[in-house]
Amino acid sequence: MKNQQSIAILGAGNLGIAIAQGLVKARVCEASDITLTRRNLDKIAEQKKSGFNITSNNSEAVTNADYVFLCVQPKQLAGLLEEIETALDSQKHVLVSTITGVTLEVIESHLKERFPVIRSMPNTAIAISESMTCICGNKLAENHLKEVELLFKSVGDTLIIEEELMKAATVLAASGVAFFLRYIRAATQGGIQLGFDAAEAQKIAMQTARGAASLLVEGSAHPEMEIDKVTTPQGCTIAGLNEMEHQGLSSALIKGIVTSYERINRITE
Ligand SMILES: NC(=O)c1ccc[n+]([C@@H]2O[C@H](COP(=O)([O-])OP(=O)(O)OC[C@H]3O[C@@H](n4cnc5c(N)ncnc54)[C@H](OP(=O)(O)O)[C@@H]3O)[C@@H](O)[C@H]2O)c1
Q1: Rounded CA separation 205/191 (Å)
Q2: pLDDT tens digits along 117-152
Q3: How many A from CA of 106 to the centre of ligand 1?
Q4: Residue 5 pLDDT > 90, yes or no?
Q5: Which CATH code for domain 170-267?
Q6: Does domain 7-161 have CATH number 3.40.50.720?
Q7: Secondary structure of residue 132 in the 3-state scheme
Q8: Which of 62, 119, 214, 248 has its CA 20 to 30 A from that of 32?
Q9: Separation of 11 CA from ligand 1 center, angstroms?
Q10: 39 close to ligand 1 (CB < 6 Angstrom)
Q11: How remote is the CA of residue 139 from the centroid of ligand 1, in Å?
Q12: pLDDT tens digits for 89-102?
């Protein structure tokens, strides 16, 4: 992203604030380059103290911005776009939506003029700058995709994808947080049965999950290569792993992911 660009985050709730804080923490921009909006300004008084501009006036926020993040709930989008439309300038503004399940076409349909529009799907780990964010854009946004990807890289990792994969990204990355957390919960319960107290078992499960993921992220290895290193012939790991597979571990995970995808398709039809 070029220096001195301004950002308006319309709908500064959980996600909007996390994005704003991540951008400043990563020194992508200053808090004073970001304007946060919401109707209830009391709820972002803390952010004002941290140097962010805050206002309830979405049009005013847009006028001063280059990037306009749309971070409201899906049912609030139409009203928001209607409110800011006259303040939008197609030569200047890039719209970046984080709104789940709302397509580029739907966003465009609310606007009379054509704008660069980018759709993003972060996950809740954005609050600690560890999101996995998938991004796609319309034709006009082609030249802005990399810049917006850089913004999201400051709050985790990113992937530019085709829009048709956005629902799959929602399942794998956004719902995926819940899937991994359920594994950690189950491992904790197993640990308690083996003699640890709940806090100890959860600590061991959490750090082991983090370490396992880091082995892949930092070593770029295939999971099975790392599994081979832990599975001594006739040892306890392979015995446990094979029992998990007999009970359908991989199959259950794949079926769960596919079921989640079928459900998201039905919800958004
Ligand atoms: N949280 C996540 O990790 C995550 C991940 C992926 C996608 N998303 C998507 O991102 C969007 C935001 O999620 P969230 O969790 O941050 O929701 P949220 O906490 O409910 O934030 C939405 C914010 O929008 C504000 N708002 C509503 N109407 C407004 C308007 N006309 N002008 C200005 N502000 C307005 C609300 O505050 P006031 O009522 O005070 O106006 C609220 O703080 C959702 O569409 C969600 O599907 C979230």
Answers
A1: 8
A2: 999 999 989 889 999 999 999 999 999 999 999 999
A3: 18
A4: no
A5: 1.10.3730.10
A6: yes
A7: strand
A8: 119
A9: 5
A10: yes
A11: 26
A12: 999 999 999 999 89
Give pairs for 55-64: CB < 8 Å, separation 24+: 58/8, 58/10, 58/83, 58/84, 58/87, 59/83, 59/84, 59/86, 59/87, 60/87, 61/8, 61/10, 61/35, 61/36, 61/37, 62/8, 62/10, 62/87, 62/88, 62/93, 63/87, 64/6, 64/8, 64/35
E strand or H helix that includes residue 16: helix 14-25
- Give phi and psi for 204, each to the nearest 5: -65, -45
Torsion region of 109: left, alpha or beta (phi above 0 gives left; psi -120 to 50 gives alpha): alpha
List b or e across 181-191, with b for residues whose CB sees 16 or more CB atoms inside 10 angstroms. eeebeebbeeb
Distance 245 CA to ligand 1 centre (A): 40
Contact 9, 35 (CB under 8 A): yes
Q: In whole angstroms, give the CA distance from residue 213 to residue 210.
A: 5
pTM for this model (two decimals): 0.91
**Alpha helices for 126-197 (secondary structure H):** 145-153, 166-169, 176-193
Taking the C-alpha atoms of residue 83 and residue 55, their distance in angstroms, rounded to an integer, is 14
CA distances from 236 to 138, 171, 222, 247 (A): 52, 33, 22, 17
Q: In the chain, what are the domain boundaries?
A: 7-161, 170-267
Residue 200 exposure: Cα atoms within 13 Å on the Cβ side: 7
Mutate to test the pocket of ligand 1, among 21, 37, 39, 134 (most ligand atoms within 8 A of CB): 39
Whether ligand 1 lies within 6 angstroms of the CB of 38 is answered as: yes
